[in-house]
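Run log, item B.
One chain of 316 residues. Sequence copied directly from the ordering sheet:
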Amino acid sequence: MKTVLVVVVSVCVSMLAWGNQVDGERWLDNMIAANRSLNYQGSFIYVRGSDVQTLKINHRIRNHKIQEKIWNINGERMEVIRLGDIQQCWHEKDSKVPLSHTLPAGPYSYIFAHHMGEMLENYVITVKGQERIAEHEAWHISVTPKDNYRFGYRFWLERDTKLLLRSELVGKDGMPLDQFQYVNVTINPSFHDSDFSPTIRDGFSHQAFVTKQPDAVPNISSGMWVLKWLPKGFLLRNADSQTLESTKVDRLLYTDGMSSFTIYAELASAGMPEQKRHFGATMVATVKKGDYMLTLVGEIPMETAMMILDNIHLKS
């Protein structure tokens, strides 16, 4: 009788865990749908390591495409405007703001919004309960990696609309490395076209680039580079070459649907140092491979990054 009872309890616990995982997946699907369908406006705090930023956002759907403007209200002036697949950035000349413009990983990642489904093989998703965020009732969703090659996430989604109100990118010890949270947010506000126009132009540096990523994995070539090892689930999503200050730079972008990293390769020049640095959850590692300097930038553990760099080589 005791054996039967143990079996019944074990089956019930397994069914509960499975149901919790399915429910969590449904919440994340709804979160992505909310980002693609809702209009909203608000202020949020973004914490990366010791760096704290306060930003504002306007977000709307126009002709089935996302229009978005994000700007900071403290420190150096910066504006990021996205109209469909085109993203433009304005910041002060000689700014200390890095090229990524320090926007939160996950919540505002175009890769994240397009490839969430395939990351389920590498993460466990659970629903933790309800909390109150920015005067809204929210559900707490935990996304835990199945290995130590990537970080985990915690999301808080508005109860009715499933809009993301708070997120944390967490390390192996469960402590947050990056944090994002709304201070206030209005859903379905009224917008004017001017709400998505830059307010800073003259005297500011300007960059524009295409953010579109494919919905399916195309036949992307890594060019003259070959990776002999990658963590399970990471796929090549984009590969191109750019010329920056007369230097050709090859770029390879990989993602598992949640986490991502980019490898930059350029011919080494005198005085280029090897390095390993952290900015909250974002790491930067540069190593020399033959005549080339390879730099990996992404939201993955440093140990994972170094293993990847150890396994990238020029094609024979």
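Observations after the first pass:
- The chain has a mean pLDDT of 81.
- The chain has three helices and 19 strands.
Flagged for discussion on Thursday.
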